Amino acid sequence: MVSFLLKRLGLVVPTFLGITLLVFALIRLIPGDPVEALSGERGMAPERYQRLIHEFGLDRPLAVQYGEYVWRALRGDLGISVVTHEPVFAEFAARFPATVELSLVAIVFAIVVGVPAGIVAAVKRNTAWDYTVMGASLTGYSMPIFWWGLLLILAFSVGLGWTPVSGRLAIQYDIAPVTGFMLVDSLLAADKGAFRSALSHLVLPAIALGTIPLAVIARMTRSSMLEVLREDYVRTARAKGAGRLRVVAVHALRNALIPVVTTVGLQVGTLFAGAILTETIFAWPGVGKWLVEAIHRRDYAAVQGGILCTATIIIAVNLVVDVLYGVINPRIRRS
Amino acid sequence: MPIRTVRAAVALAVVALAAGASSAAFAAKTLVYCSEGSPEGFNPQFFTTGTTADASSVPIYNRLVEFEIGTTNIVPGLAESWTAAPDGLSYTFKLRKGVKFHSNAKFTPTRDFNADDVLFSYNRMADPSHPFAKVTPGQTYAYFDDMGMKDIVDHVEKVDPMTVKFVLKKPEAPFMADMAMDFASILSAEYADKMMAAKTPDVIDREPIGTGPFQFVSYQKDAVIRYKAFDQHWGGRPKIDNLVYAITTDASVRFAKLKTGECHAMAFPKPADVALMQNDPNINLVQQPGLNVGYISFNVEKKPFDSKLVRQALNMAVNKKAILNNVFQGAGAIAKNPIPSTLWSYNDKIQDYPYDPAKAKALLAQAGYPNGVDVELWYLPVTRPYNPDGKRMAELIQQDWEKVGVRTKLITYEWGEYRKRTKTGEHHAVMFGWSGDNGDPDNFFVPLLGCAAVKGGGNSARWCNDGFEKLIQNAKLATRQADRAGFYVKAQEIFHDEAPWIPIAHSVRFDPIRKDVVGYKMDATAHHFFNKVDMTGQ
């Protein structure tokens, strides 16, 4: 187990280096630079341009800039945002809880709906149930988030008036951030109205963001379940007289869920990618929306730092999933 | 100059009914404004974007002089009156008495506004050795630099506690308009001293204290900015109690929020949504011609644009009406001068070049191009306030020019790259535009068509005409507006005849407001003011 862990950890180092290099290079490959992006039609006085370029260290050789970026990042310093002049890490940390809250609710929604849907589709294979679930999940998977999000807003907020259009909390509630998780903070403030408001604001973005993982989880559960249901021990369980529900829920489900757990872990990346669009549509003050803005403005430090933080989290989650998987399934550890 | 459309719209708003679907009831009157983006910060001295000005200088601060809302007329602000020296080399401001600053958890003012605040605010930007010049890392006084204030103002004197004198390096009539701009906002010197003593000088930029109609309460990044009415505001307390900016970057979502009543006013609607808003019974769509111009400029240093006849011919070859309908979807006005019609000194006697392909062809032949010519047209890669769709506009012009034998190659670059390359004069014909900063005609003529701007790059036609230059320089020296207008009127005649540009259009701006908000006036410099509005039904 220790060697397995070490091996997995060993892979993390080159992954990190790869990410830093990729982000560093990609943002610089986009035409334009952060200082130029600060100016409009008027342009900027050449002296000021030079001074700012120098202040942000953009006049040094690329290799030096890269080395400095990695060296600073290792010490936890992600630099200063060109736009707001605030430390990138503080900017990231201020927005991160919003993204986590949204992603958690979205993934819970995806699991709670996706797993049972997949089981139903597997058990009732080739029936209308199966076709409905599979058809819906294919549609959900194919739906672009920005369009799906707008449709949800038009239907449930503008049309029916059931949910708020966007944001995290109704304007009349002013909850000071403690944990940054609006659901938790509103409970801490003992404000039931704010909690309800926070919950209602989460519904649409969580559905928009959770739809693709839901579709993946439903399909994964179905195929894994089908495979397990064909296993000998399931037949044995049936033969010894176990009820239909017991066979599915106890004997088959446990084993069928192993690949599903892996899939959920992999969906963390999808969630972050989706959050970029979801947050933009729903004016959700999270990391995704901030990163998009940073890319528009060529805020090198913010893009580099933000993506590094995001990548770290995705790597960490996948590491945990891998390790957990190894714990659950001894065959993985040994191979 | 009062603008009729605004008056009509305001009149409409006054008789408007209370909206049906309003958001939850508040004890106090709270106006929610769906803004288009996050402010870069709260000190208007550092930034140039309208988004940041809307969140900082507009609600929180005042200037010595202000633009009258709806026009670019200069009216008293923190200065009650002012006089210009006869030689135009100094301006003396009498300050308003009894003006209170806001207070917050860290600061309670012990004195009223006085000359020290003016000196502090100005010197911080002008003097690199000022203790507050560099308290926030990476900060620059962008607008101050961009407007060339260092070359205009020599120094500021405190004549007595309630009088200040700005001494200029040269006569500069547009100076007064500069003083009404966002960057000229007045900060509290007492607050600065206190924070410096507490060794946290940068707090004054993050937790702003001003004299404006609203006090800053809190900002949750990318989400909400809260302000409350300032009871002791010198201009009278606002009628609403709370002002909340709900930051909503997507224009469609802002519209959805306006429809459901989650916000009462919104910024920058999509042109495609304007018709829907017009038909919405709960929404009042206020509109005003923007302080801007969209144009094509000809690089007169390159063939065939060195020929005046060619430039005139290409002016006649463009069907501006079609562009207005297709690109601006009607939300614009045809331009014939380099300044919009809302600016004083606009020369309405100028007859625009008619759309006349036959005559254009004849002129081209006369200029020595009987078989047409190959040109390049650079088009905008981004949507700008003065041009919703550069590519579409370029395609229409390409077709128009094709008809007179001018074969056009369309070219574009990334926006930063585009500006960089045009500054060096690499282009042929190039699409550009401008939004006025301060409503002074000088702010259009000099940066876009002046001789110094050829070198600076703002003059993309690279057109330097002695007669024209003399007029716009004279207009800087004269202090009486009527005299200045005379120079600009003549300058527009030269511009028309020389045709360094094809002025295309001035876009129209729209502010959609819910009908339960009354008294809203559109601002000429595209800011959003809520200090005079009231809300019915709350």
Q: What secondary-structure arrangement, pairings included, does this model have?
A:
The complex is a heterodimer of chains A (about 325) and B (about 550).
Chain A: H1 2-29, H2 34-38, H3 46-55, H4 62-74, H5 88-123, H6 128-142, H7 145-159, H8 182-188, H9 192-229, H10 232-239, H11 244-281, H12 287-296, H13 300-328, H14 330-334
Chain B: H1 4-14, E1 30-35, H2 50-55, H3 57-60, E2 65-67, E3 74-76, E4 79-84, E5 90-95, H4 115-126, H5 142-146, H6 149-152, E6 153-160, E7 163-168, H7 175-179, H8 189-197, H9 203-206, E8 214-220, E9 224-229, E10 242-247, H10 251-260, E11 265-266, H11 274-279, E12 283-289, E13 292-298, H12 308-317, H13 320-326, E14 332-334, H14 357-366, E15 373-378, H15 390-403, E16 406-411, H16 415-423, E17 429-435, H17 442-449, H18 452-456, H19 466-477, H20 481-498, E18 501-514, E19 517-518, E20 534-535
User: Which class of secondary structure composition applies to the elements of chain B?
Assistant: alpha+beta
Spans where pLDDT lies below 50 across 5 or more residues of chain A: none
**What is the N-to-C order of secondary-structure elements of chain A (H for helix, E for strand)?**
HHHHHHHHHHHHHH
- Main sheet characteristics of chain B: 7 strands, mixed
Q: What multimeric state do the chains show?
A: heterodimer
Termini Cα gap of chain B: 33 Å
What is the tally of helical segments of chain A?
A: 14
Q: Tell me the β content of chain A.
A: under 5%
Please state the CA-atom Rg of chain B, rounded to the nearest Å: 24 Å
Q: Helix count of chain B, per DSSP?
A: 20
Greatest interface by residues involved? A-B, 53 and 56 residues
The beta-strand count of chain B equals 20
Q: Please report which band the strand proportion of chain B falls in: under 5%, 5-15%, 15-25%, 25-35%, 35-45% or over 45%.
A: 15-25%
Distance between the termini of chain A: 11 Å
Overall shape of chain B: globular
Helix content of chain B: 25-40%
The chain-level mean pLDDT of chain B equals 89
Provide the low-confidence segments of chain B as ranges.
1-26
Query: How large, in whole angstroms, is the Cα Rg of chain A?
Result: 24 Å
Largest sheet: number of strands, sense, barrel closure of chain A: none
Number of strands of chain A: 0
